[in-house]
Specification:
It is globular, with a radius of gyration of 22 Å. The protein has 455 residues and is α/β, with parallel strands linked by helices. Strands 1-2-3-4-5-6-7-8 form an 8-stranded parallel beta sheet. Strands 14-15-21-17-18 form a 5-stranded antiparallel beta sheet, covered by helices on one side. Helix content is 27%, strand content 24%. The relative contact order is 0.09.
Length: 455
Amino acid sequence: MFLLALAVLSTPADWVPARWFSSDPASLDLVKNTPVNCLLLEQADWKPAFITAARDQGVAVLGLVRAADLRDDLSERAAALKLTGVALEGEPDEKFMRLRSALADSGLAVVNINPRTRMEFGGDSPIVATWQGVWPGINPAEDGSAKAAPSGAPWIDTNAGFLRFAAALHKGEIWMGNTPPEGKTYPPARYIQALADAAICGARWILALDSSFQKALLARDAQALKGWQAVAAHLRYYEENKEWLRMPPYGHLALVQDKESGALLSGSILDMIAVKHTPVRPVPIRMLSDDRVAGSTMAVSVDPSALNPTQTEVLRRFTRGGGTLLTAPPGWKFPPQRDNQIVLDKEDVQKLDQIWKEVNSLTGRRNLGVRLFNVSSMLSTLYGASDGKRLVLHLVNYSDYPVENVTAIVLGKYAKATLHAPDAAPRPLDVYEAEEGVGFDIAKVNSIATLIIEN
């Protein structure tokens, strides 16, 4: 009977996860008619009635286990309670690995939520995950002002650069498991920003609400329910349009980088480029090939000393074919990433500044796929097949107010553009000729929007 019940649950690739905050079966009403179909449950909330009710509703339940909570009988207990699986959150030490093996032997699903540096990219697991992330948004500096980006615009805290690199390494699902800062209370818009920050990079955020929001939802507070519905609507928007997020990154700039040159850090070179709205395709060094740089007109090799002779020859062929290559200064080396480090420190910033100025001068006024205007509080990603016949431009607004009068200048010739958003019907945009391509004007973006551009 249990195996038959499991058959109606979604497969791990389709799980839409949330950290759940109640063992009351009645709380499952909150996830009805939402995309959320996988709940991560603290051990204190492993209650048979809740697990049974979730399974009957087609919702997977993963028991959340941290290193401090390890018990000898965890695998037997998880199996006896008929959990769908277990999420192991923490450093994958010897005890975790033993439990992981025991869980696998019992037939339960296992999701490892690891530090960034211990994520198993390219492995057999359908899901790789980390709890280490910045809280997305325009977060004020200590004096209350907005922090400045390299471009002079407000700095947007984002996990996008790290997630773009992770997506280039791993073809399975990627979960971003960061949680709201302790003691903070956020409006629904900040949760929409968090889920969109991951979604536009092809990842899923493990939905996690602050304690005030949780309590209000359990009390069925009308305002909290309205906010929850808004979050669910934005989540549904991405889940119903997953094909837009499964396309390859598009653009004429390739960034050759690896873990040792800051690719796992938020605020590194990928994020600096993203803040400038320059389309970029991350190329992990181990995957550097002619195919990976094909279609690019520019490439940046962040750490050329890390390339082997075969990889170096790939970039030589790229330049002989007319491509422009920018490399780090001779002897340049990024500082080693420390344990549990996820953002740049002062030394890292100084190191990156030595190559960032060159990258910015090379790409700053070039159209490498799309140029955007009036988007200082936004981030974007551009996807599309290598032939460029259909492009998908994702926009996320990280401010507390709508952004108006956005202009996109797309490289190439296109005849049709349609604007999609969760809060409006699809709308065709006028297409006009512009220098280097065609232009589109977007009157307003409230929270998120997607522009589908076609020949």
